[in-house]
Design brief:
single chain, mainly alpha
Length: about 190
């Protein structure tokens, strides 16, 4: 998970609204670091990190709502929808990983790939969960009918994942067309 960067420009003696605007600018910058991954549906971890960054901007808007212009509520609602779409996408990814694990596919398909320069793999599923699923004393051998049912469910889940990504991507593009970032920054400059 992407950690929030510390903010050093805050002044404890400054008005709350001023500090709220500083925090929002920083969190918005953190969010847009992930914009380069939006067009690539295979960037599973980065899209999940984008969701977390979106959540931080949204919650900051909500926490400081009384110190911000009325328009901040509309921005928070828009971010809430984006967060929900990214959440549905991540839920689909986890479900796909679990189904593939149950169907005994290669573990390399179960983990997400970290696209950072280190090349390390980041697990999509917690290692304890993977270990538990791979523990054959807990999992019965699946019959052909059960395997076919899981394969069918996997296929439907892949379609849901594609729909979730398409919905999110379309929404993101609309936000770009409406200059969401610039409008939010402009709102932060207004009184």
């Amino acid at each position: 998970m992407a950690r929030a960067r510390p903010i050093s420009e805050l002044d404890l003696r400054a008005p709350t609204g001023r500090n709220a605007r500083i925090i929002l600018r920083e969190r918005l910058a953190d969010m847009y670091v992930y914009a380069r991954y939006v067009a690539d549906p295979t960037c599973i971890q980065e899209l999940h990190d984008l969701r977390i960054a979106v959540k931080r901007v949204r919650y900051t808007l909500e926490v400081f709502e009384e110190y911000l212009p009325e328009a901040s509520k509309d921005f928070a609602e828009e971010l809430g929808r984006l967060q929900d779409e990214l959440g549905a996408l991540h839920d689909s990814e986890v479900m796909l990983a679990l189904l593939r694990l149950l169907l005994h596919q290669e573990q390399g398909e179960i983990t997400g790939q970290d696209s950072s320069s280190s090349g390390k793999k980041k697990a999509l599923l917690p290692p304890d969960m993977v270990k538990s699923f791979l523990n054959t004393t807990h999992v019965a051998v699946l019959s052909e009918k059960e395997q076919a049912g899981l394969q069918s469910f996997l296929h439907r889940q892949e379609q849901r994942r594609e729909q979730a990504y398409t919905s999110f991507h379309r929404h993101w593009k609309k936000l770009e067309q409406r200059n969401f970032r610039e409008r939010l920054l402009a709102m932060l400059e207004s009184k």
